[in-house]
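DM from R.C. (forwarded with permission)

"hey, sorry to bug you on a friday — could you get me a structure for this? deadline for the figure draft is monday and I only need the backbone to look sensible"
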Amino acid sequence: MVKNVYFCSMLQFENQKIKHIVRKAFPVVVLAAILYSCASIGRPEGGPKDYDPPRFVGSTPVAGAINNKRTKVSLQFDEFIKLEKATEKVVVSPPQIQQPEIKASGKRIQVNLLDSLKPNTTYTIDFSDAIVDNNEGNPLGNFAFTFSTGAQIDTMEVSGTVLDASNLEPIKGILVGLHANLNDTAFTKLPFDRVARTDSRGRFSIRGVAPGKYRIFGLMDSDQNFAFTQKSEVIAFNDSLIIPRMEERLRMDTAWVDSLTYDTIVEKKYMHYLPDDVILRAFKELNYSQYLIKSERLVPQKFTLYFAGKADTLPVLKGLNFEDKDAFIIEKNQRNDTIHYWVKDSLLYKQDTLALSLTYLYTDTLNQLIPRTDTLKLVSKQKTLTKEEPEKKKKKKKKDEEDEPIPTKFLPVNVNAPSSMDVYGYISLNFEEPIASFDTAAIHLRQKVDTIWKDVPFEFEQDSLNLRRFNLYPGNDWEATMEYEFSVDSTAFHGIYGLFTDKIKQSFKVRSEDEYFTLHFNVTGADPMAFVELLDAQDKVVRKRRIDKGMADFYFLNPGKYGARLINDTNGNGEWDTGDYAKGQQPEAVYYYPNILEYKALWDTTQNWDIHATPVDKQKPDELKKQKPDEDKRKKDREQDNQNRRRR
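My reply, with the result:
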């Protein structure tokens, strides 16, 4: 009994002691919890992620206000928000010459318009998807705020898509504007009347448009004056006038009981604004200004001139400290805007400085080509070794050890003769310097017949676009599955600086025709001189074929995935050509086959292709697009977040 009383008294004492400790510790625990909650604004780890965007709850002035004279706008939202890339995404229409001040603070956005307000004008502040919640970054997409300085709000809209004219890639962030002034010069002299900016799908919607007739343009506005004033700016224009209109349409609204059961389907009328399918093909005009960008002499034996634009003639060089007659081998590209001069004489290129006068056609301030002469002093960035310079110290040799012979230096050459040769392939030799001479008798091509190597005919020629490349083609087609040997005797090629090639010997086997497939396009709707480009998964050209009698045929294709692009080659030069606004000339039209094709070996298939059957903005397959929609990126992030949560 005494023990029980003692035990109870001890227990009571311990309880009093614990309560006393708790009373002292409780304020500290509460304070720590408060500090932790203040520091951890985001969601608790492992909790459900918030995917709901912010919600607009009010503004000053009110949305849709008329007769408004305020230049400051305050927008209120239901949660803390922030602005992402406001200078890129937010567009005020009519465009503001002075950039407006746009700031986010807490649950508010403050907009201060610095330009004076125009009378009787509808103003639209288009935020696109720049407004996101503070924690998760969920965007409030397609949000715009509108008010009017007059007695009514203009409600018309013009929508469409801007695509890169050369490859139908959606262009993100380009301005699209309307001009009520229908003169061609309005685009080059006046700011737009109404503007919008494209989203990640290349889509735009110009809001607050008044009834009337307009011209529409696209502009990558590098100088931010809302007009095409620099030739380097990407532009787009439409040949037809834009006449905004609206029509009443019906849509089906569904009331749901839960996620699986619907209650009723109700027809609702709404106003749809047209046109909503404007296609603008954006391009950059050719740079017609001709001037010398730079000159360089990276190695003693060669110097290069870089010009700004295409030229029909080569510049004229005159040596000032050397004799220039027959002094160079000239290597140029097709546009004559990059020209390499190989100096033939070693005594000449060993000079530290080459002084010369350069006469070429130059574009003056009146945009006229006039002759101009510059004096150039070209100093090599790489030092030339001379015989007078001391040789590197030789290694000490042992007693009775003979001097090692100096290895022969040969002319470098890169041989492209794959061990598994395509039936349509060829052999190429690429040299590091121009060739002074070569001996065709020293070049051999043999075919293995049974066990005997037999000489076979071939064609050997200098490449038409690269003077340092030579190509070998079989006299007849390669025979499938047969073995060949390509060889070159030593000293067959002589470079301009005295070096000769070493012996070359390379064997290869031609692939079997059973390893390929054949693809035919039966094309309708194309111009007479159109051609088709077959594309790989990176949208790069694999093959090119002219359309002949409505067909484009591709033989000996490797199995795999392909896309296809058609160019209406109006001038017949075999390449895509850009447009010219001053001439009213659109870029050459481009179309994509709307699906990715995948075939196996031995297939021989024909694809019917009506280039107008699918709208242009929906032709290019998503797999080939480099500009991915932002919502697709957010979806991937969302899926990745869910996976991470499941792992935890």
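R.C.: lifesaver. The mean pLDDT is 88.
me: no worries. Residues 292-379 form a domain with the Immunoglobulin-like fold (CATH 2.60.40).
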